Amino acid sequence: MSCQDSFRRSVHYLRISVTDRCNERCLYCFPREFSGWREQEDLLSYEEILATVAVAVDLGFTDFRITGGEPLVRPGVPHLVREIVRTPGVRSVKLSSNGTRLAGLAVPLREAGLAGINISLDALDPKRYYEITGGHLAPVLEGIEAIRGLDFPSIKLNAVLLRHRNEDQIDPLLAFAAERQLILRFIELMPVTSREVLRPENFLPASEVRQKLESQDRLEPIEGSLGFGPARYFRMERRGVTVGFIGALSDLHFCEQCNKMRLTADGRLRPCLGNQMEVDLRPFLRPAIDREGLRAAFLDTLRRKPLEHSFRDYYEPERAMTALGG
Ligand code: SAM
Questions:
Q1: pLDDT digits (tens, 9 = 90+) for 244-254
Q2: How far is CA 55 from CA 61, 133, 241, 310, 319, in A?
Q3: Ligand 1 neighbour 102 (Cβ under 6 A)
């Protein structure tokens, strides 16, 4: 088996975007405006998503994440989680959310069998949070408190690094995470949705933040994986908090362990976030579900999964991160 074969065979993680809409308007994400839920023709139904999951599981996928846009603006996400959890062969179902609607949904999500939640939290100062996301911090903090009491096996906070905009929030975020014993991950800005945001004056390399923290504290590497993503994790000895760094641009080994593909909200399979290639699954889902066709499309996409993203090659995003299920 070639190393390319073994790379592709290790793919077992599918991120499922259930909507490209978001109730916040992050300056680095440019989501489509949300003004109340409306059914959209182009959006996969839950039945279509479940048919895709069944084929993925047959091909060895075991781990799933519901994302978006903001997944919790779509009604019925706990139902979708429950149905995926019930699919024989599924090991874990997790969710990424901006946290704004978590407080009201935490219990049904836990009861549905959700194994973990990643919450975007770019700042702890409400004004700064608003400047970055266009949203309000209070409901997010309420959401975090709601899930903390529910014994989720995994809760992580995600902060996208923005020079000058949230550099001064790193310390408060570390204190917040330490106090609650939550994992805090710093995500380097990526040229998804638009290159516009990725300007030198905005870009703060994850490696720079790591070096700065290393100058203040001992960062003990955590061996093994705390998830299925490309984050590198460390325990900050003095501060007593686990931090992760996701450096799509500054980490030259970023793609080596990549084990994921993405299902977009409109039914395309995308093998790499940083490469425009997508395979449309809708011809195998509509008007009727064609399992053999879906299986062949999955295998074809897997075979074509790039070994490395193209973010460093003047990559021009054609589609919004929110549609891709970032
Ligand atoms: N709305 C959900 C959330 O906030 O987690 C799910 C979708 S969001 C697109 C998924 C993750 O992508 C979030 O952690 C977000 O901060 C991150 N993200 C969005 N745009 C990004 C960019 N340009 N660079 C790096 N990360 C980005």
A1: 999 887 877 77
A2: 9, 36, 39, 28, 25
A3: no
